UniProtKB/TrEMBL annotation:
It comes from the Bacteria. This is Probable farnesyl diphosphate synthase. The lineage of its organism: Bacteria, Pseudomonadati, Pseudomonadota, Alphaproteobacteria, Hyphomicrobiales. PROSITE patterns: POLYPRENYL_SYNTHASE_1, POLYPRENYL_SYNTHASE_2. It comes from Bradyrhizobium cosmicum. Its cofactor is Mg(2+).
Length: 307
């Protein structure tokens, strides 16, 4: 057991979600920034539709709590978390498109391309992706430009060809989209498509806190274990969950013929793997003592979530 009760954890998670929501609302306002020419209404409305009023904000929460281990100012961590959330929301918009997962429902509402059209959805995703790098380079995050550079480079690599985007094309290949019979490495796809952004939430705190190599590695190991646990829990929910709780159609993976952790390990094998990953995550951050209690609770939250 950790030193953080479920109710205390829930309050911290909700607080970060509320703070992130307020920050994103400001970042996505109609106010034109220096060097911007205009903020077109249709584009901004679409970006706000897919970014505000939804989600647990787990990724920003990981940034805030991993940074808190080192006493980093919360405002700085929230900005980095907002940048990460912009990347996450852009990826959901693009994943839902007809050319990708072809989803009609997201967070209990019509997906953006259903609410508007494909072109608007594509551009809204592009806008969020670009805004993320505007945010993560801002001076308010850290006085040391090298820290901001490291944050930016890590975000690009976790979100890009060697991370989320690369994982997405491997996932599509695994569905047979491109012909041929390419071998499917579920663990590799997970590490890239889903795990990379969750891992960034953890290592961003280490970068902000100018952690030692040992401390950075601890959060890196924790983030990798948490990311895999998140994906296995997601695969289990796709089999055992219901659309009302999930806010999206259940059984989508099976409908697409995807190979998942559940299809490879079976339901009980997948649940045992999650338990093993929780133990690994706990062990990774044990070097921080009581300062790791919230992170340990976060790993349990990920593994036990219902949506």
């Amino acid at each position: 057991m950790t030193g953080t009760s479920p109710s205390d954890f829930a309050k911290r998670l909700d607080k970060t979600a509320d703070d992130t929501e307020a920050l994103l609302a400001r970042l996505l306002s109609d106010d034109i920034l220096h060097d911007e020419i205009a903020r077109p209404k249709r584009l901004m409305d679409a970006m706000r539709y897919s970014t505000l009023n939804g989600g647990k904000r787990l990724r920003p929460f990981l940034v805030v709590e991993s940074a808190a281990v080192f006493g980093v100012p919360r405002e700085a961590a929230l900005l980095v978390g907002a940048a990460l959330e912009c990347i996450h929301c852009y990826s959901l918009i693009h994943d839902d498109l007809p050319a990708m997962d072809n989803s009609d429902l997201r967070r209990g509402r019509p997906t953006l391309h259903k609410k508007t059209d494909d072109a608007t959805a594509i551009l809204a995703g592009d806008g969020l992706l670009t805004l993320a790098f505007d945010i993560v380079t801002r001076d308010e995050i850290h006085s040391d430009a090298n820290v901001r550079l490291l944050l930016t480079r890590a975000l690009a690599r976790c979100a890009g060809i060697g991370g989320m985007v690369g994982g997405q094309i491997l996932d599509l290949a695994g569905e047979g989209r491109f012909g041929g019979n390419e071998p499917i490495d579920v663990a590799r796809i997970q590490q890239m498509k889903t795990g990379a952004l969750l891992r960034y939430g953890c290592i961003a705190g280490a970068i902000l806190g100018q952690a030692s190599q040992k401390e950075y590695q601890a959060l890196d190991d924790y983030g990798r274990a948490l990311g895999e646990a998140f994906q296995i829990a997601d695969d289990l929910l796709d089999v055992e969950g219901d659309a009302a709780a999930l806010g999206k159609p259940a059984g989508a993976d099976a409908a697409l013929g995807k190979t998942t952790f559940v299809t490879q390990l079976g339901i009980e094998g997948a649940k045992q793997r999650v338990r093993d990953l929780l133990a690994r995550a706990d062990s990774a951050v044990s070097i921080f003592g009581d300062r790791a209690a919230v992170l340990q609770a976060a790993a349990r939250f990920v593994a036990e979530r219902k949506n």
